[in-house]
Amino acid sequence: MERLLQQIINGISLGSIYALIALGYTMVYGIIKLINFAHSDIYMLGAFIGYFSMTTLKLGFIPSLLLSMVFCTIIGVVIEKVAYKPLRHATRIAVLITAIGVSLFLEYTTMAIAGANVRSYPPLTGILTKSFMLGNINISMLQILILGITIILMILLQFIVKKTRIGKAMRAVSLDSDAAELMGINVNTTISFTFALGSALAGAAGIMVGIYYNSINPLMGMLPGIKAFIAAVFGGIGIIPGAMIGGYFIGIVEVLVSGYSNSLYRDGVVFAILILVLIIKPTGLLGKNSREKV
Amino acid sequence: MSILSVKKLTKSFGGLTAVSNVNMEINEGELVGLIGPNGAGKTTLFNLLTGFYVPTSGTITLNVNGTSKSLGGLKPYTICKNGVARTFQNIRLFKDLTVLDNVRIAMHKNVKYGLISSFLHLPSYRKEEDELIRKSMELLRILRLDHKKDELAKNLPYGEQRHLEIARALATNPSLLLLDEPAAGMNPAETAQLTELIGWIREKFNLTILLIEHDMSLVMGICERIYVLDYGMIIACGTPDEIKSNERVIKAYLGEGLNNA
Amino acid sequence: MKKLFEINWIKTLVSLILTFVIIQLLISLNIINSYLQSTLAAICINIILAVSLNLITGFTGQFSLGHAGFMSIGAYVCALITLRIPTIPGFILGVFAGAVTAAVIGVIVGLPTLRLRGDYLAIATLGMAEIIRIIFLNMDKITNGAAGLQDIPQFTNWAWLFLYTAGTILIISNFIKSSHGRACISIREDEIAAEAMGVNSTRYKVTAFTIGAFFAGIAGALYASTFNFIDPKIFGFSKSIDILVVVVLGGLGSISGSIIAAILLGIITTYLQAFANIQMILYSLALIIIMIFRPQGLMGSKELSLSIFNRLGNSYKSKKGRV
């Protein structure tokens, strides 16, 4: 039982990371129906910018986190303007291939600049190195920090989406972008803003993965990216709370599978869950069934 | 003898009952109209008859060549194979394919050569493909589309697209043809031409036709009997003259031009 | 009019023989050296993969991101058979068994997943391919796990590659020009209308998927036999993406487009090898630029009738011309 709880605690940290990445996928998909393959590389860039900020610039964790989020926001918006906007009326598959192109570009440019080898984040200092026991369960301050930041970011996101003007515009555009445009909403600005929000969250996820797992490399985004996307599908793509639930679910399942059986099966189980979800309820946990009109 | 017999057919979506307790009998060779205000459930009824929706309750029975078959819950392609063909209100041609291909695809269900023959273009392939082209061209000639066989469907003018939809439905060799607003968007001259065409193909192909239409000149002009649907229920059934003077129908339409027909 | 058809048939045959002989001559004269020969093999394998994926995605409209999974099945089955029976009959058996196994898995994977549409199908096929890869990774005793299989006997040469590549192209383009092929295309155009016209859409989606998987299996078998070494990493998600890129660059629904794109990409990659460190950056930039300026791919959905595989365009036109 204690072991199970311990695994779940560890799973929550991983789940936070997945949830933050999944939010970006789900928002972008909701608004322009694109599986933004480059999103996982924004997360990778977030980790690298955090690394640069903490080593070269010798900034603390929180300033590095903010720096990383700001940079990722800019990169996300630029990618949208340069690569996706010209294809607004092209086929979905053409945009998808472009997204794959952008993803490869970010990966290999990072590799050319920073090298292909794995880098380690600087060791933690101060209170972040501490951990405490709750009964027989070990909880580190780092895990609390990750969960805390994730929750704060999610509350902020919910506030933006539900209470602000631009949040309303986002929801309107995702329902019907033509109608939204006729109502005077600037669709392009709204799409840019969505990319900005998603990228900022991915940047935060990147730096948190850096301090938690302590190793980063230019191709680190691929697998977590796919898993975060699965998390978004699991919760119901386009639905923000769905991505959060999905992220935590996938994170916890993964840690449990590694903990209780062969860790080589970890990814297999995640993909099997994906396929089961798609077959049983393709619209995901929180999605509504809709049928094509005849 | 009735070719189509619908009994107590009901379809609800969540709390909304789109088609409620509908009874309908269509006799072989008849030309029957289905009218009703917008949102009355006409297209839903077509979708039930052609297998795109599964009925919530009730039965649909098709009697062709002395055998009767229950259609409720069957897949659309099975229903098509049993001899029911349809057109769509919002034209659903294979837009990026040629006129000829549109018709040939609808004849696919009768193709007998197998996959191996299609891989290697064996003699059976050639023989049947030649036959397919011959039959398709025959149909296209009837609908005056033969000179456009290599045009893409999307490049046809609107009226010809409607004709092609009818040609495609006929290519499935149906006993019962369901036309969903065939005259929508046509001008009076085109409608008159279409009216003539419908009457003519009915004779030529020995068809029973059920058609949804808003254009009263067409409905009143060629239908032998008319069913009126309102809020998912049949509120009247009878000859054009009976329908014109039916109080409930007039009320349902709020005098929507029935008398002008 | 029957003559016209026969003339086309002869033209196809002649151009095929010419292609074969010319390349064989270049190999004999060592103009195509052993290094370029492996490029040639890679191009042939990519043509088979792209044409077979085009049948699924370009013609039937079913977006698959799992083609590498079927390729890996062909590769492993053929490798395991030829390692035990290192003879020509063993190789023939290996390729055939690999293709059939891939096709069987194609049916098993296709039946449940092909009910999904668009991106959902893409992501489900991606998941299936990853599961296949993870299974190979974990079947240590048979597949040697992550270390992969080494010293797979090499049987492929230009003649074999040509035979399989030309065979794939002819069979798939013949299929597309048949009534069964048109049924597949009608699903891409409008699935609802296709069903209303009597096309059993599930059946034809699974048919296209299975044929595609069969040929991907052949491609995998040829890969194993050409490059002597396979491991699960080779058949990951990136490989599926690579195949899709060839198809989209060539044009969805254009077989000659897939062939041209595979040849061009093969040649470009060979010459970019000199700039190994920025090769992928250039490739990704090219991808983005091509998609922005020509999202329909090189050929759109048209066929090139002048190509050596001119049967594609010509016999189709002449057949229609006969009416």
How would you describe this structure to a colleague?
The complex is a heterotrimer of chains A (294), B (261) and C (323). Chain A has 294 residues and is mainly alpha-helical. Chain A has a domain at 18-220. Chain A has helices spanning 2-32, 39-55, 61-84, 92-114, 141-163, 165-175, 177-182, 187-213, 222-235, 240-260, 266-280, and strands at 119-120, 131-134, 137-140, 215-216. In chain A, the strands form 2 sheets. A two-stranded antiparallel ribbon of chain A has the order 1-4. Chain A has a two-stranded antiparallel ribbon with strand order 2-3. In chain A, helix 1 packs parallel to helix 5 (141-163), helix 2 crosses helix 9 (222-235) and helix 10 (240-260) crosses helix 11. With 261 residues, chain B is an alpha/beta fold. Chain B has 2 domains: 2-83 and 174-260, P-loop containing nucleotide triphosphate hydrolases (Rossmann fold); 96-158, no CATH class. Helix content of chain B is 38%, strand content 25%. Chain B has helices spanning 42-49, 76-81, 99-106, 115-120, 123-142, 158-171, 188-205, 216-222, 240-244, 247-253; strands spanning 2-13, 16-27, 31-35, 57-64, 67-70, 84-86, 176-180, 208-212, 225-230, 233-238. In chain B, the strands form 2 sheets. Chain B has a 6-stranded mixed β-sheet, with helices on both faces. Chain B has a 4-stranded antiparallel β-sheet with strand order 2-1-4-5, with helices on one face. In chain B, a hairpin with a 2-residue loop joins strand 4 and strand 5 (67-70). Chain B is globular and about 60 Å long. The mean pLDDT of chain B is 92. Chain C has 14 helices and no strands. Chain C has helices at residues 2-28, 34-59, 67-84, 88-113, 118-138, 140-143, 158-176, 179-189, 191-196, 201-227, 237-250, 255-272, 276-293, 311-321. In chain C, helix 3 (67-84) packs across helix 10, helix 4 packs antiparallel against helix 10 (201-227) and helix 7 packs antiparallel against helix 10 (201-227). The termini of chain C are close together. Chains in contact: A-B, A-C, B-C. The interface between B and C is large, with 47 and 30 residues.
